[in-house]
Amino acid sequence: MREPAPAPPKGFRPHMPIKTKLEAVLINGPVFDSEGHKVCKLEDLDFDHQPPLQMRVWNVEAQDTDPPANDPFYIVPMVRAQHRTKTAKRDIPEIAKTRHLSAKQADFVRSITTRQCGDKRKPSGSIPSRPFPKRKKTR
Predict the structure, then answer these.
(1) Does pTM surpass 0.85?
(2) Which residue of 22, 34, 50, 65 has the fewest CB atoms within a 10 Å radius of its CB?
(3) pLDDT tens across 28-72, in order?
(4) What residue numbers bound the domain in which 45 lies?
(5) Domain contains 10
């Protein structure tokens, strides 16, 4: 049975150097705000990890995510308001759903592996108390 991929430790967020930010801007090209004006100041930008860091697989040997957290090819510069909206509306709920499902999966695997050979399964429900409808007799 395959183990679920390990997630990064909670709160994992390494410092992003200015060199990485500039490389991400060069790779992705100019950034425009909602009115179509080019954003020229680095201070007006946020840098979005795609996929989010908590959705990446943790590499134990490197003590980093896979792909690495500060790889400029997986960082997209965005206007601050757009980045905050994307994070709040899409990334955080997706991360929470993934954690919830992986916890359910781990509980299921634990219940299956602790079963002994010959254990009877518990009935999932009972037969309805109302009988099936009678058919009309045809001649």
Answers:
(1) no
(2) 34
(3) 988 998 888 898 888 889 999 999 998 899 998 999 999 999 999
(4) 18-112
(5) no
